[in-house]
Amino acid sequence: MGRSPSSIIVWIAPAAAVFLLNASLTFINVWPTPAITWRGGLSLEFAVCVLALCIAGSRNRVHSRRLIAWISSVWVLLVLGRYADVTAPALYGRDINLYWDLRFIPDVVSMVTRVAPLWLVLAALAGIVLFVVILYAIVRWAWRRVIDMAAAANRRRTLAALAMAAVVVFVAARVSGRGGADSSFPTPVVETYARQIRLVATAMAAPRSLAPSPPMTSDLSRIAGADILLIFIESYGAVAYDRPAFASGLAAARARFEAAIHDAHRASVSAFVESPTFGGGSWLAHISLLSGIEVRDPDTNALLMTQRRDTMAKAFARRGYRTVAWMPGMRQRWPEGRFYGFDDIYGADRLAYRGPEFGWFAIPDQYSLDRLDAFEVNRPSRQPLFVFFPTISTHFPFSPTPPYQPDWRRITDRHPYDGPDIVRAYAREPNWTDFGPGYVDALSYDFTSIAGYVGAHADRDTVMIVLGDHQPPAAVSGEHASWDVPVHVIASRMAVLDRLVGHGFQRGLTPRRPSLGRMHTLLPMLLDAFGDSRP
């Protein structure tokens, strides 16, 4: 005889509670978005908790408001940990590391509050608080239903049997080697937190020794007298060549760039190198190249900064160069400049941009290139220059992209663009479900700006090194993307380019695989191409 409708209704709330609590720790990411879905995974933590409650329930020890509040609070932390664990790889292309990442939250908050209106910041904070409150209320309701089941003898036996079966299946899967993130049991969240604890313990262990600096004794004889522009293009990754949609979208801008190089009587060579970072952390790429030491995490970066080391800037300074850091994205002090040994550092305030703002960092890269001429290049009777310039117009979320101004004389005006150009630029707000078109637009803008700069300085002896700092976030790069970035060297000095071809570079602006190696190994190649080693 079947169950009555009333008895079925009695089971609906407990069943919903079981489903919610289990799914809350077994959801997966809808790549490459912040969204989540559930595909039938089972939670070991939930099974163990239910089993413990059933054992306690048989001894009448589960009716406690304090217990419900405690387990609900812990569960909310587990849910948030699960979300971070499955979402970070989809958005940034790497696992989260709380020890490293939390220390940069003040910088992110500062950046957001600087560019977002106060009401939007407050609304976002209110939304986060409201979400956590609602999540806690739902979790508390669900655990109360489960605890009620554990206290009732007729339901407790069913609940305990199911929980015990889940635990046994999990253990069997792990013993047989079939467990893991892709099995019916996703990686338990407690393992995620345990991994974070291990990362903290490793980072706080005895100080690590760093590799020695590579020799920087090049006499720079093959570039004597030439200005050196080291331009890191933000988020310029191998995906710009690997994804057909991006490659075709950038084809016209690359063709203009190549034509400008040819018209300026120069040539180019290109290659791929592996960045030490992915989706962010540009400074790790910068220091790896400038020091010749691989730096893949903030702790190594901090340790290296405490040491007296030779750098690319110091090597050029010893040969009579004026070394300049051109930093339009910097709005505060930059003590790292002392480690690198730059003669002068220009931040956003010194560049004094007055036009319409674009993106988080406001200043268009074309304007920064123009100001480089005004403040440094056009000085009379000057030394040759070594300029380190990390761009900002291709920073995530890539839109709105500044319009390119063909008349460079207008770029310093308060109104450097025509009205329709501004309207079109601001109309291209970030598409939070598809960053690809914005990424292509931003890279096209930087290629066009650099091409315009090359074309306007055909008579100037300049060696330009243009490379990416890292791939864009995984939402753009795709799943399982490499960490490779392109590097181009543009010069009229064929001896330099020939030497780089000997190191594995290809002629032209199209790099080919395999990559030459990791980012820090590029420095010795460049110094060798620039001159011979001298004591």
Explain this structure.
- The radius of gyration is 28 Å and the shape is elongated.
- Helices cover 51% and strands 9% of the residues.
- The protein is an alpha/beta fold and 535 residues long.
- α1 (5-23) crosses α6 (118-151) and α2 packs across α6.
- It has helices at residues 5-23, 44-57, 65-92, 98-101, 105-115, 118-151, 153-176, 189-203, 239-242, 244-263, 282-291, 298-305, 312-318, 336-340, 348-351, 365-377, 419-427, 436-456, 474-477, 494-502, 522-530; strands spanning 28-29, 36-37, 227-233, 267-274, 322-326, 344-346, 385-390, 462-468, 484-491, 506-507.
Explain the layout of strands and helices.
Blueprint: H1 5-23, E1 28-29, E2 36-37, H2 44-57, H3 65-92, H4 98-101, H5 105-115, H6 118-151, H7 153-176, H8 189-203, E3 227-233, H9 239-242, H10 244-263, E4 267-274, H11 282-291, H12 298-305, H13 312-318, E5 322-326, H14 336-340, E6 344-346, H15 348-351, H16 365-377, E7 385-390, H17 419-427, H18 436-456, E8 462-468, H19 474-477, E9 484-491, H20 494-502, E10 506-507, H21 522-530
Parallel strand pairs: 3-7, 3-8, 5-6, 5-7
Antiparallel strand pairs: 1-2, 4-9, 4-10, 8-9
Helix pairs in contact: 1-6, 2-6, 2-7, 3-6, 3-8, 10-18, 16-18, 20-21
